[in-house]
């Protein structure tokens, strides 16, 4: 897809999902980091139900760093892969205390050194906490929607991110991710997309094919 068409799509979607923000609920940088780790292979709705209780009990980096895996695992069990997630959250908290002065780092290079944190999570933290556009968070919704809209022909998140970064101006990257996620949740759903109700159906190469 050429850049002009991509920007046209963005402007239409921006009107529909104006002010789109992450669906994850959090009170500070580490809570968002933990919530994002928990969101792997899990819906944000489920994560928010879990963290509503979890963050009342353990709200800070220090709180999580002091936990044992056996204490955290039962709290997050319903998010799936809970043993690995508990290990990563606790290990990340300890590393932040020991290596970064107790504060979640605000750059990509340091963020991706944290256990359980890859580019997707780092991009979410950088945009939503530090207002930095270092890249584009490619989750399952962004992957699906960008493919259907013809913004990329790839299935690999790294290649998808690269394509999207080439199509859109840097100051739109974080916002674009939130918009595509909202579009994926509300309209361009995995099993049955609402093509008749889609604001970009007239521009979409996949419209009416499901």
Description:
By secondary structure, this protein is mostly helical. 57% of the residues lie in helices and 0% in strands. α2 (29-38) packs antiparallel against α8 and α9 (140-148) packs across α11. The protein is globular and about 55 Å long. The model has no long low-confidence stretch (mean pLDDT 97).
Secondary-structure map:
Elements: H1 3-16, H2 29-38, H3 44-57, H4 61-65, H5 69-76, H6 82-99, H7 108-111, H8 119-130, H9 140-148, H10 157-167, H11 173-186
Overview features:
single chain, 210 residues, mainly alpha, 11 helices, 57% helix, globular
Low-confidence stretches: none
Strand residues, percent: under 5%
Determine the number of helices (DSSP H or I, runs of at least 4 residues): 11
Q: Helicity range of the residues?
A: 55-70%
User: What is the succession of H and E elements?
Assistant: HHHHHHHHHHH
Shape: globular
**SS elements, strand count:** 0
Distance between the termini: 21 Å
For the sheet with most strands, the description reads:
none
Q: Name the average pLDDT.
A: 97
Radius of gyration: 18 Å
- Class computed from helices, strands and strand pairing: mainly alpha
In short:
The chain is mainly alpha-helical. The chain has helices at residues 3-16, 29-38, 44-57, 61-65, 69-76, 82-99, 108-111, 119-130, 140-148, 157-167, 173-186.
């Amino acid at each position: 897809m050429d850049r002009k068409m991509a920007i046209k799509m963005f402007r239409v979607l921006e009107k529909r999902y104006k002010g789109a923000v992450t669906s994850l609920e959090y009170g500070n940088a580490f809570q968002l980091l933990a919530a994002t780790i928990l969101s792997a292979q899990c819906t944000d709705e489920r994560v928010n139900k879990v963290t509503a209780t979890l963050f009342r009990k353990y709200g800070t980096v220090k709180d999580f760093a002091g936990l044992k895996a056996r204490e955290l695992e039962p709290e997050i069990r319903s998010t799936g892969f809970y043993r690995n997630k508990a290990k990563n959250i606790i290990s990340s908290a300890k590393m932040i205390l020991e290596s970064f002065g107790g504060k979640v780092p605000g750059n990509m290079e340091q963020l991706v050194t944290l256990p359980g944190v890859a580019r997707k999570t780092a991009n979410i933290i950088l945009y939503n906490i530090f207002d930095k556009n270092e890249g584009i968070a490619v989750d399952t919704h962004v992957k699906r929607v960008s493919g259907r809209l013809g913004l990329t022909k790839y299935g690999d998140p790294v290649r998808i991110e690269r394509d999207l970064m080439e199509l859109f101006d840097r100051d739109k990257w974080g916002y674009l991710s939130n918009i595509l996620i909202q579009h994926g949740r509300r309209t361009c759903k995995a099993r049955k997309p609402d093509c008749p109700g889609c604001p970009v159906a007239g521009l979409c190469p996949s419209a009416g094919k499901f």
